[in-house]
């Protein structure tokens, strides 16, 4: 893909300073960019590279324009501009070529939209509906009565169990499993009795799901993922979790059953959520947090101990073991002070 700066400015709604006929074909790092490439400046600590960059053009804010020694496209948010430009110049191949591969197994009653692509060795079971432009990568499994909306894409070896509903323009990375059984069991005198998971999974539009992430089906009602949600790699989303519009979840996060996450939340990597709690809208959780109770006020929340030298950590751990004793001694001292003051 090659675009001129004039075409790119029109696409981005940018203000062009320079030659509209210059062509770019790739995005690149500001420090290492070469002619034919376009870069961006979103962090002021890299501003010095504006004077030396070899890029044919740079996406900048108006405040940084004077420091730019090459063609510039002025935008309100250069990082968003970079994302839009990268989409235009994207060279990522499709998960599968056009049409249905001869080795794919597609049930007779599957409803196929226009321009559907199904890769080698994929299995599409009875009652499935695939919308226009859906792409199914090699080795995928789509279970009975599942539905995938227009232009959604599954990379290789994705598994969708039965009765999974996915909206339009979704992207699922390799190895993800959607609709597996939730962890539901009753205990009868030490023996585990499985509870059939009779719900499904309902995924909205423009949702992206990372590699090897698992989203369990609901026990009775569906597990719900709203529009515009992004979930990173190797996350575990348990049965009947609800995730609100525009929330972002970083890798290795674990959510226990029936957790409800609000809109526009940002969840740091390796965070853990207790089951049956609620997190309100616009909450940011920093990485490796353990969320044990509901959060009812927007804001920034953290837990966990940052990395430190082993020697320092051993001292802290040793003191933590004596917190209860220290609390009792402090309470005793407070009582003595109160008695003296009286």
Automatic annotation (TrEMBL):
Q: Where is the UDP-3-O-[3-hydroxymyristoyl] glucosamine N-acyltransferase non-repeat region domain?
A: 21-88
Pathway membership of this protein? Bacterial outer membrane biogenesis; LPS lipid A biosynthesis
What's one Pfam family here? LpxD
Alphabetical keyword list: Acyltransferase, Lipid A biosynthesis, Lipid biosynthesis, Lipid metabolism, Repeat, Transferase
- EC class, as a word, reads transferase
The residues responsible for catalysis, as annotated, are 239 (proton acceptor)
What CDD domains does the record point to? LbH_LpxD
Picking any one GO molecular function of the record gives: UDP-3-O-[(3R)-3-hydroxyacyl]-glucosamine N-acyltransferase activity
Q: Please tell me whether the keyword Transcription is annotated for this protein.
A: no
InterPro entries in alphabetical order: Hexapep, LpxD, Trimer_LpxA-like_sf, UDP_GlcNAc_AcTrfase_non-rep
Q: What is its EC number?
A: 2.3.1.191
Q: Which reaction does it catalyse?
A: a UDP-3-O-[(3R)-3-hydroxyacyl]-alpha-D-glucosamine + a (3R)-hydroxyacyl-[ACP] = a UDP-2-N,3-O-bis[(3R)-3-hydroxyacyl]-alpha-D-glucosamine + holo-[ACP] + H(+)
What is the superkingdom listed in this entry's lineage? Bacteria
Q: Which HAMAP family match?
A: LpxD
Q: Which family does it belong to?
A: Belongs to the transferase hexapeptide repeat family. LpxD subfamily.
According to the record's subunit comment, the protein's assembly and interactions are: Homotrimer.
Q: What is the role of the protein in this entry?
A: Catalyzes the N-acylation of UDP-3-O-acylglucosamine using 3-hydroxyacyl-ACP as the acyl donor. Is involved in the biosynthesis of lipid A, a phosphorylated glycolipid that anchors the lipopolysaccharide to the outer membrane of the cell.
NCBIfam families attached to this UniProt entry: lipid_A_lpxD, PRK00892.1
What this protein is called in its record is UDP-3-O-acylglucosamine N-acyltransferase
Q: What gene, per UniProt, encodes this protein?
A: lpxD
């Amino acid at each position: 893909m090659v675009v001129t700066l004039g075409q790119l400015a029109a696409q981005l709604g940018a203000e062009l300073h320079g030659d509209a006929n210059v062509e770019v074909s790739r995005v690149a790092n500001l420090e290492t960019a070469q002619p034919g490439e376009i870069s961006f400046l979103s962090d002021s600590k890299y501003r010095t590279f504006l004077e030396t960059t070899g890029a044919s053009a740079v996406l900048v804010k108006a405040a940084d324009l004077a420091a730019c020694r090459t063609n510039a496209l002025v935008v309100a948010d250069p990082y968003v501009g970079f994302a839009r430009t990268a989409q235009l110049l994207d060279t990522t191949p499709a998960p599968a070529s056009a049409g249905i591969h001869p080795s794919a197994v597609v049930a007779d009653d599957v409803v196929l939209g226009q321009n559907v692509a199904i890769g080698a060795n994929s299995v599409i079971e009875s009652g499935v509906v695939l919308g226009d432009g859906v792409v199914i990568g090699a080795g995928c499994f789509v279970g009975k009565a599942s539905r995938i909306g227009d232009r959604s894409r599954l990379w290789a070896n994705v598994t969708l169990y039965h009765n999974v509903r996915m909206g339009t323009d979704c992207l699922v990375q390799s190895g993800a499993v959607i609709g597996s059984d939730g962890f539901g069991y009753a205990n009868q005198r030490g023996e585990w009795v499985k509870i059939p998971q009779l719900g499904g999974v309902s995924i909205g539009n423009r949702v992206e799901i990372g590699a090897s992430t698992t989203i369990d089906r609901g026990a009775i009602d569906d597990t719900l993922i709203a529009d515009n949600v992004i979930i990173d790699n190797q996350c575990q989303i348990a049965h009947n979790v609800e995730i609100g519009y525009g929330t972002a979840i970083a890798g290795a996060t674990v959510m226990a059953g029936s957790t409800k996450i609000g809109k526009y939340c940002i969840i740091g990597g390796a965070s853990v959520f207790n089951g049956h709690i609620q997190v309100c809208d616009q909450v940011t959780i920093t990485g490796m947090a353990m969320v044990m109770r509901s959060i009812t006020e927007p804001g920034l929340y953290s837990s966990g101990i940052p990395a430190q030298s082993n020697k320092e950590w051993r001292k802290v751990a040793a003191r933590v073991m004596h917190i209860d004793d220290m609390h009792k001694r402090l309470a005793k001292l407070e009582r003595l002070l109160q008695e003296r003051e009286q």
